[in-house]
Design a protein that fits this description.
With 193 residues, the protein is of the alpha+beta class. The chain is 54% helix and 20% strand.
Length: 193
């Protein structure tokens, strides 16, 4: 009896752990994926306008921002070599320079969605689109992941608290069941012995 109770409680702990891990992974991925939505839409609209020789300037955010200090979306235009031409966001006062590898992937796949960390403490959700234009080779749109990462940290804390609460209930249940079983075993020995 004791052995089966222990196995049952271990199984319950594993099931609760898997459920909590699944909840965390699902919600975390929803938060992170949604962080790319405005950039994807804006990058595709700008590329569409550039491809049809239309003006894209009305699609660009109005002010220039420092990306390490702002949550706003920024747009950067790059030539075919991946060198910055124009940007509504700056990185430490300069136009953002992305790693060369992200341009190769975008060139091959038409689009690259990635996380860029230009320096510690600054993480950007980026969308890079290849453009078929003589002067503009790529359109990059990014925004800070600061709020998303804060939500992910809050989610992790909530999941850990819920998991700890469930584990406490399972442990308390096991202790109560074990003590009841022990008392019953003592009574049975007293009656038979």
């Amino acid at each position: 009896m004791k052995h089966s109770q222990f196995i049952t409680h271990i199984a319950a702990a594993i099931i609760v752990s898997v459920i909590m891990l699944t909840i965390y992974a699902t919600v975390q991925q929803a938060h992170r994926s949604a962080a790319n939505d405005p950039q994807i839409q804006l990058a595709r609209d700008i590329v569409e306008n550039i491809s049809h020789n239309n003006s894209y300037s009305q699609l660009l955010p109005g002010d220039t921002i420092e990306i390490s200090k702002s949550l706003a979306t920024f747009v950067a235009l790059y030539n075919l070599n991946g060198d910055p031409i124009n940007s509504t966001g700056t990185q430490d006062g300069k136009m953002p320079k992305l790693p060369k590898g992200v341009f190769e992937f975008a060139r091959s796949n038409n689009e690259n969605v990635f996380t860029w960390q230009p320096r510690p403490g600054v993480r950007e959700a980026m969308v890079l689109k290849a453009v078929r234009s003589s002067e503009i080779g790529f359109v990059a749109v990014g925004r800070s992941l600061n709020e998303v990462e804060q939500r992910e940290a809050n989610l992790l804390n909530m999941i850990l608290i819920a998991w700890a609460g469930c584990m406490a209930v399972i442990i308390i249940h096991y202790i109560i069941q074990f003590s009841i079983f022990k008392r019953q075993a003592v009574k049975e020995r007293a009656i038979t012995g």
